[in-house]
Amino acid sequence: MAVLDSKVPEGPLDEKWVNHKNNINLVNPANKRNIDVIVVGTGLAGSSAAATLGELGYNVKTFCYNDSPRRAHSIAAQGGINAAKNYQGDGDSNYRLFYDTIKGGDYRSREANTYRLAEVSSNIIDQCVAQGVPFAREYGGLLDNRSFGGVLVSRTFYAAGQTGQQLLLGAYSSLNRQINRGKVVPFNRHEMLDLVIVDGKARGIIARNLVTGEIERHGAHAVVIASGGYGNVFFLSTNAMGSNVMAAWRTHRRGAYFANPCYTQIHPTCIPVSGEHQSKLTLMSESLRNDGRIWVPKKEEDAQAIRDGKKRGVDLKEEDRDYYLERRYPAFGNLVPRDVASRAAKERCDAGFGVNKTGNAVYLDFEAAFKRYGKVEALTHGHKNPSEEEMIKLGKEVIKKKYGNLFDMYQNIADENPYEVPMKIFPAVHYTMGGLWVDYNLQTTIPGCFAAGEANFSDHGANRLGASALMQGLADGYFVLPYTIGDYLSHEIRTGEISTDTPEFEQAEKDTRGRIEKLMNATGTHSVDYYHKKLGLIMWNKCGMSRNAPDLRSAMDEISELRADFWKNVKVSGSADTKNQELEKAGRVADFLELGELFAKDALDRNESCGGHFREEYQTEDGEALRDDENYAYVAAWGYNENPRDSELHKEELIFDNVELKTRSYK
Amino acid sequence: MKLNLKIWRQEGPKVKGKLVDYPLDGVDGDMSFLEMMDILNEKLINEGDIPVEFDHDCREGICGSCNMMINGEPHGPQKLTTTCQLHMRKFSDGDTITIEPWRAKAFPVIKDLIVDRSAFDRIQQAGGYISVNTSGNTQDANSIPIEKSKADEAFWSATCIGCGACVAACKNASAMLFTSAKISQFALLPQGELEATERVEAMVRQMDEEGFGNCSNTGACMVECPKGIKLENIARMNREYLKAEVVG
Lengths: 667, 248
Prior knowledge:
The complex is a heterodimer of chains A (about 675) and B (about 250).
Chain A: H1 16-23, H2 29-32, E1 36-40, H3 44-56, E2 59-63, E3 81-82, H4 94-104, H5 111-130, E4 156-157, H6 163-180, E5 184-187, E6 190-198, E7 201-209, E8 215-219, E9 222-225, H7 246-253, E10 258-259, E11 264-270, E12 293-297, H8 300-307, E13 321-322, H9 324-328, H10 338-353, E14 362-365, H11 367-380, H12 388-414, E15 423-432, E16 435-436, E17 449-451, H13 469-489, H14 503-520, H15 528-543, H16 549-569, H17 581-605, H18 629-632, E18 634-638, E19 649-653
Parallel strand pairs in A: 1-2, 1-9, 2-5, 9-17
Antiparallel strand pairs in A: 3-4, 6-7, 7-8, 10-16, 10-18, 11-15, 12-13, 12-14, 14-15, 18-19
Chain B: E1 3-9, E2 18-24, H1 33-46, E3 69-70, E4 73-74, E5 96-100, E6 109-111, E7 114-115, H2 118-127, H3 148-158, H4 165-169, H5 176-187, H6 196-209, H7 220-224, H8 232-247
Parallel strand pairs in B: 1-5
Antiparallel strand pairs in B: 1-2, 3-4, 3-5, 6-7
C-alpha cells in the first residue's frame, strides 16, 4: 500500500493557502505562451478553469460532449451557492463555513482543502457579480440570501431557482472571451476516450469526434479532468442523460487512484418515479425546504387510504399529520442535511406511511408558508385584518416569485398543481462525493493530470451540504487550479511542444479503436439501455440509501456477471464513423459496469456509517449513522484493476488538528 | 395510446432526408416526449433498425439541447415548455405527430433531428461577455448596488437557454431574440455599460455573418420561446444598436 502524500502545506489552517500561493513556482508570461493545457469538461469547474488559464496566457483546448459548453449539467443546479460573506450579519465567517462543511461531510474530508474552499468562497461572489451574473437582490439593491440544509446562517446566494444556469453562463461568457482572443480552442461534440501518458506524465488525450467518428490525438503539457460526477451509474438520477464517468475512469485505468467511490448523495427532494419508462429524475431544489414542511400521515390507515386514492393528503387535519423531521430534529427541522432527510423519508416509507401509489413518496407542503408570507404581505400593504383566504392568496404570489419555475416544472411532470395540493417527493441520486483522488494542488496520482469540481473526491467528505457544489466547482476552476497547475508547469518550460507522433499516442489510439471495434462486434442481443437499467437496479437496491454486507457482496457478483454479458452480447447499432448515440452510450455504460463493482467494494470495505454511506450494521439505537473514527478516518483511494474487486486500497489518513470529531447531531 | 409518428430521417449533412412513418403503441400519458422517443428507439434497435438521433441532455428544460419541431411548432403545442418537459398526456390516442429538426440556413442538419447550432456560440464569442479578468481581484459584490427591478429584468433576459426555437419559429430564421437577450442582460446592468457599444456592434455583425435573417416583428419567436424571453429585448437591442451607430 502506497502512502499518499496530500501535500498539505505547513502552518496554521487559515494561513496555509496564502503561504502556499506565495511559495509555489510561477511561469513567466512569455513561457506560458509555449505551454498547452487540455481541459476535459466545460461545466462550472472546466469552463472557469479554461477561461482563467487562457487569460493567464496558456494555450487551452476544451472538450465537451455537448454541442456547446453552455449545456454542461452545472446548468441544472437550482438552489444556490454558498459564500461566507456574512452580509446578513448572522455570525457567519470563513471558519463557520469551513466547520459546517466538514461537519456536514461527517468528518471525512481534508481540513486544509475544506478551509481553502471556505476562504475563497466570498471572492467567487465578487467575481460573478463583476461578470454580470444577475443574482437575486433585495429592494435596497444589495444581494439577497437564503438558507440551506445543515447550517444555521443565511449564506446562500441565488438567482431564482436557476443559480447553476446563471453561474455557468457567467463562466461560459468568460470562456467565450478567451475563445474570441484565440487563447482557448473549443472542441465541442468531442469525447475523451483515453489519457496518454509519456514517461510517467500526462501528455494528452485520445478523443472521438462525435459527429464524424474520427479518433483524434491531442497533446498537452497538462490535462485537467473536470468531467463531473458518476451518479448515472444508478441509471436513474438527477444527472443529465449524458453525464458519465468516462474521462475520470479512463484516467483511473491509466493509473490515477479513485477515491471514496461509495460516497453518494441521495437528494431528499426529487419528483418520485412514475413508471418503468422513466429515463431520469428531477430535483426540486433544497431551497424549497426553507418554506416547505415535510410530512406523512400519522396513521397508517390514512396513508393506505391515500395510496388507494380514497383520501387526499390535503384534506388531512393538522393533528393527523406527522412532520417527522420537525419531530426528530427540532433544532434543524426541515433543514437537516440531505443524507439525514433522505434516510428519514425512506424510514417512514418503509414503515408504511408513503403517500403515492408505489408507497415511495412523502409530502412537501407549502400551506404554512402561504399563510406566513401572506400575512406579512398584507400588513406591509396596509391591510391590517386579512382573512385566511386573502393571506393564502397573497402568500401564493410571494412563493411564485421565489420558486415559480420549480412549481411550474413540478406541475408539468407530476400533473398536479402544487399551489393547491402538497408536492410529493422522494429521494434520488444526485451527486457523487467520491472521484479522482487529488492532493492539495488538485493533482491526481498521475503527474500532470489534475481533477477539478465534482470529478475529484474533493472537499465534501461523505456528504455534501446544499449550495456547496457550485462553490467548489468555481473555487477549483477560478481560484485554485490556475495557481497550483503553475507550480507543475514551471518545470515544463523547456519541454517544447508535445508531439502526438509517438509510440505512446500510437498505442493509446490503437487501444481505443480496439475497444470500439469490440463494442461494435458483440453478438447484438440486448440494447445498451437494457444493461444500464439492470446495473441501475442493482445499484439502487443494494448500494443505495442503506447498505449491508451480504447485499454488497452479491452486488459485486451480479455486476461482474452483467459486465461479462455486456461485452459479449451488447447490441450497438449503426457504424462507428458517423454520429452514433448508441456507441456513445455503450462506451459510457462499459465504464459504469466497472465503477459499479468498485463502488460496492468500497462500501463493503468501509465498516462504518458516515454521511451518505449508511451501513445497516452500524447505526445508533435511534437509527442515526454510527461512525468509527478510530479505524475509518481515512480516504480510501483505489488503484485500478480490471477486476475491480481486486483493486488495491491506498489510505490517506485524515488528520484533524482544528476540529474535534463529534457525533453529528442536528437535534 | 397508439401514435402515428412521422419522423425526419437524414443520414448526414450532404444526404437528402425524408419523413418516415413509424407507428408506435404502448405510449403512456405520464411519459415525456423524449421518453416516448426512447421507446421508439428501443423498438427500432430490437428490430434491427437504426435509432433516431436527437439532441437531449438534462431533460429538465434548462440545458437547451432538445430541439424538435413537433407538428410544425418548435417544442410542440404546449407554451413555455421545452420538448423534454412536454408530456404525452397532451396528445390523444390515434394522433399523427410529425417530428422534424429546426429548419434554418444557419443551423445545418448533422443527422436526423440533430442540427449544428454552433453559430449561437460564435455570436456569444463575438461579445457576449464583460471583459473582467477572472483572477478574483474584483471589488466587493455589494459595492455595486443594483435596483431590484433592473436586476430582475436582467435575470429574465439571462434565462435564455440557447435552444434555437426562436430561429426555428421565425419565417426569416432570425436570431434577434437570442442575441438581444444577452445584449439586454448586460445593457440593464451597470457592469455592462463600458463595453455596450462594442458589444452590440460585434454581436449583431456576427449574427448577420452567420446567415440569420432579419426581424419582421411577427413575434413568433416570443410565442414559441420555451422560457418566455420577451420581444422588449429586441427593441432594447435596436436602441443599443442605434446608440452605438450614433456614437460610432
